Amino acid sequence: MKTENMKKKKTDYNARQRIRCFFVFVGLILLLTGLALLNICVGSTEISTKSIIDILFGLKKVSETQKSIILDIRIPRMLEALLLGGALSVSGFLLQTFFHNPIAGPYVLGISSGAKMFVAFTLIVFLKKFAYVNSITLVMAAFLGSLTVIFFILLVSNRVKNMSSLLVAGIMIGYICSAITDFLTTFAADEDIVNLHGWSQGSFSGSNLDSVCFIAILVGIVFVIVWFLSKPIGALQLGEEYAQTMGVDVRKFKVVIILLSSLLSACVTAFAGPISFVGIAVPYLIKFLLKTVKPILILPAIFLGGGVFCMGCDFVSRVALAPSEINISTVTSIFGAPVVIVMLISRNARRG
Amino acid sequence: MSTEKVCCIKLDNVDVGYGSKAIVQKINIDITKGKITVIIGPNGAGKSTILKSIIRQLKTIKGGIYVQDENEYKKLETIPKNDFAKKVSVMLTNKVSTELMTVKEVIEMGRYPYTGQFGMLKDSDKEIVQQTIRNFELEDLEYMDFNKISDGQKQRVLLARALCQNPEILILDEPTSFLDIKHKISLLQTLRSLAKKRGITIIMTLHEVELAQKISDEVICVKNKSIFKYGKTNEVFSEDTINRLYDINENEIGYDPVFSTVEFSRVTGEPKIMVLSNCGKGIDIYRQLQKEGVPFHAGIVYKNDIDYNLAQKLAVDYIEIAPFEKITDEDVLCAKKKIDKMDKIILLPLTYGDSNAKLKEVVEYAKNKAKKLICVP
Fold this sequence. Notes:
A: 81% helix, B: Rossmann fold, 2 domains
């Protein structure tokens, strides 16, 4: 009788999990497609659905402006939000697993501060010398800034045994970069750095198919590598010490995780600026829905979830106060902060 | 019984510590295969440091650790990570905190060194996991969140996980720390049967000295940056060694290796109470008097009576009789003299035989002449 009960419990649990996974993935894919279409069809300019279909499938001749809006603005922007949202969420998840802390966000190691510092510097220098700044230049500056911080973090992580020390180092580097940025902005002319604040609030605008291709390749490769590391990531969930006794080369693996996570968040910061709360809220929501942390399952789910979240937020930012745009960080904060608060409260309740 | 000792881990002139600072030096130990070896010693002596060096979490400062592989001994550093994980598995004292992992998923982690690229379990792996769950009676907990079960249950699960790794050597760092007595016993018994039935070598640190004495085959004592003593349990657990190891003043408080106990200090002073007892009946009274800080005389005790062991430790004075000898008139006279000096006599139900017949005289005397007599039923 007992074994029968237990067998039933077992099949119950397995069945429930499978159904849950199925619905979560299907739901995410549906939301993804829905939001993608929404982002293409709706915007500050009114374009009829019929025209959109004509543009997408190259049927009838349509006005050049409308074609440009759809193909050169909305679609790249939608794709960028999808890819960068996914990248940011995965980056956050990796750091949370690494630090065994659900509040660790993709920027906890100071990457966005480094990027901002380089962007500030670039804005000042270029605007002084050339009176204008190429968006590609800003992208490269942000990338370079992120990579510099990554370099220092990796140096520190090699010498440091304790994870908290690494966290502190990251926070300190962040503070130093912020201090330098403030220093630069104090002595710069207002007109040079007026865009800095806007940049640091993040935005998906200004994307084109070239940058989307670059992002897709970079994010795609990194994500696949991370997914292939599902096994050691799972081991790390039991803790560093146990992971090491199961055969994981923890030292090397830590460096790889930091590198991959930082590449993802550097990519986001470079193309869209720092976007807050995505890296913390989305992993939490996905864990809540999926009720498992098995890396093979949760990594794709988090990527999709991040894409959905950012596309949704981008839609709100474009449409809510059209024709002007709300900064993306504002929107992600409005939606993301309550999620993080709920997470912290429920964590405390469980602990207490 | 084979007298040949098969060694599975050799520590050859090893110094262990952090950085360049050695915490324990010149360790020369051959750990016997298939036996339970326990490491004991005062706090901070370096027990965990030695374990960490064996499981490769810490580099040795000097010397080499060698592990038996097939018929040869390989230096620790040369063994590939995966092979080492198949040989040695670990259970640590730190609390593991997981998120959304079921008990079964934690146990399945034990198969890590055996699974492929994505960590998918083959049917054989699943069977091993199921068998382990059955052996540890964890079926009820299988699908529960690991974080939500009790500490005792967590330890069982972590031990099950360690066993799924199919090790030859199992290393545990204070596995009984967070457990109540029932679970302590249960865990240690499981370890015993593992060593015996599956021939797994077990190396662990324990704080509970009395449990170490009962469960171990060999003992390593660590103190003052060196191996204080190393050998079979009965050699190490002599009266003196434990007290010296932990710096317990043997006059006041001491570890009794015969009974595996520690008793608190004797109450000194002029005894005004005498306890007349035998066959263990006096033990309760001795302890009560000690707790109340009252010095007492333990009356006439045979050296092979259970009361004797505690009387030796707690009573100010007693009249001892050699085992199975008759009580002499001299002894009776001695006892009567003592009774005269007492204010109170506590009389417990006594067992009489051929050799202690004269005890009745003493009891009669006490009943007639004692200032106050308390009969305990």
